[in-house]
Amino acid sequence: MLSRSQFILGPEGMGFEKEFAAFTGARDCVTVSSGTSAIELSLRDAGVTGEVVTTALTAPFTAVGILAAGASVRFADVDPGTLQMDPADAANRINRRTRALLPVHLYGQLCAIEALRKLAADHGLALIQDACQAHGARLSGRPLTRFSEYVCYSFYPTKNLGCLGDGGAVATSRSRPAQRLRRMRDGGRVGQIALTPGVNARLDEIQACYLRAALPHLAGWNASRAKLAAVYDNALADCPGVTLVRRDQNSVHHLYVIRAQRRDGLRRHLTRAGIGTGVHYPVPLHLHPAFAAARQKRGSLPHAERACREILSLPLWPGLRQTEALRVAESIRSYFQ
After folding, report:
1. What is the mean predicted confidence (pLDDT) over 209-213?
2. Domains within the chain, CATH numbers bracketed
3. Which tens digits make up the pLDDT trace of 133-181?
4. I want to staple 125 with a disulfide (CB 3.0 to 4.6 A). Which of 55, 120, 183, 227 is the partner?
């Protein structure tokens, strides 16, 4: 890479695009500068300028990408068992201004994508998937690109497949969107001539090089996460004060999240025991000041609001030992018992 003096849009990036497309089962893959850019460019390419319905329980960058594309956002509530966007509630949020659905595969679990695809088709809406936490996930072996033209990924360092900084990609089921996305991410240029409106959202070669080295390990890392999640499942199955979040065999276990009574007290207890935890996410998006234009007040999405008071992310990464996961579970039990 240094000898070529080509640091952006070079052979490392092109190589990773082919390899990641093959890994996900997509026809093509276009790398971009972040998962947020992947969402923005997908909406721009789909021509979405109206309202987009997405989940209230996700990282703010999902909605940031929607606003960056020039669209507006409407939030739907979640299924309290899975914490994924509820298709029935999403259907109730659709109105004459709605132009797209943007479901999120939260925590590495797949949302009800088949039901949401049908909902989008019934209403003539674009469907863009946020798979920024779901690298390698498929629905019963079927690639996510079977369900929509655009599947967005992030390679932020904490993801199942992360690089050394920000990075992202759009996996797509068709060649023409891929061609347009490649032009759009590079200022709409062909050579030095900007032919169409675009942005500057390119993945650099050093990140692509790092991702190419990590990708062959991803399936093994996901398998390790699954084993650790099963350890937690068994150890916490009947724990008082704890409700497990429902998953299925399609999960890639980006995060292991429980619902806990007295969540903040439990966090302090675990911290004293030397155990780090996280909350993904503490405030549902409809209550963020940045998204006040959605005009969805406190109490309007009760399942998401309650979940944000109870959810707790436990330690989970491929190098975690099963004995360490058991110690986390034992410390949780000691708090409630």
Report:
1. 98
2. 11-216 (3.40.640.10), 217-336 (3.90.1150.10)
3. 999 999 999 999 999 999 999 999 999 999 999 999 999 999 999 999 9
4. 120
